[in-house]
Amino acid sequence: MGRKFVVGGNWKMNGQSNQINEIVNNLKNGSLDRSAEVVIGVPAIYLAQVRSNLPKSIGVAAQNCWKADKGAFTGEISAPMIKDVGAEWVILGHSERRTIFGESDSLVAEKVANALQHNLKVIACIGETLEERESGKTEEVVFRQTKALVPAIGDKWKNVVLAYEPVWAIGTGKTASPQQAQDVHASLRKWLAENVSAEVAQSVRIQYGGSVTAANAKELAACEDIDGFLVGGASLKPEFVNIINARQ
Ligand SMILES: O=C[C@H](O)COP(=O)(O)O
């Protein structure tokens, strides 16, 4: 069976009530490809509002959560809190979390393990920097980041989507070419076949993220191993609907 196309919109730290209502209305009124799964990554403070305003057919994700369920962790939110407001997903390991907030592979793995234990679905992000790509280390980096996730995921791969986001393509307008993205996705699948299982390699969905727009989405979506997108900037704009419909 084919992998279901999955498009995530990661609003990052953008949007206040007016803009959020506009984006939500665009999604509610837009004609969306029914064969695509859609997940919106919302700032924590707006999770409940967005969840109650969107139809259940559209998933809602937190953009981060801590590895413990409760306690003295000022400023953090927990997996049970995300569940409590009705959101189903969490984005973990985004490169902005890794670089700006110093999240290591092992911390990301602990967060992934805890989120999955609470039956949240996880978009787990990986990707190399420009320096790493230019020194020929792309595979080494994404394999290392994925390897750290393997014990954390255990037998819960069905609840995980991997997002390959080359850091040099995020918010820069410099998209990976379809061939560059496809090559990394195919290598990841091969690595998963060798290090996890053929079944996981074949079934796990791998999104591409990094300057995806309505203008480049169709060509990227046509690649064999690209199963969707994690979209930042363009997910705040009406063109997000066209990105969701990229396979149509
Ligand atoms: O999570 C989304 C990615 O960081 C991509 O962001 P972008 O589409 O603004 O480049």
Automatic annotation (TrEMBL):
The keyword Secreted does not apply. GO terms for cellular component: cytosol. Pathway: Carbohydrate biosynthesis; gluconeogenesis; Carbohydrate degradation; glycolysis; D-glyceraldehyde 3-phosphate from glycerone phosphate: step 1/1. It catalyses: D-glyceraldehyde 3-phosphate = dihydroxyacetone phosphate. CDD domains: TIM. The keyword 4Fe-4S does not apply. It holds the Pfam family TIM. Keywords: Gluconeogenesis, Glycolysis, Isomerase. PROSITE patterns: TIM_1, TIM_2. Its EC number is 5.3.1.1. One of its GO terms (biological process) is glycolytic process. InterPro entries: Aldolase_TIM (IPR013785), TIM_sf (IPR035990), TrioseP_Isoase_bac/euk (IPR022896), Triosephosphate_isomerase (IPR000652), Triosephosphate_isomerase_AS (IPR020861). GO terms for molecular function: triose-phosphate isomerase activity. Homodimer. Belongs to the triosephosphate isomerase family. HAMAP family: TIM_B (MF_00147_B). This is Triosephosphate isomerase. It comes from Danaus plexippus plexippus.
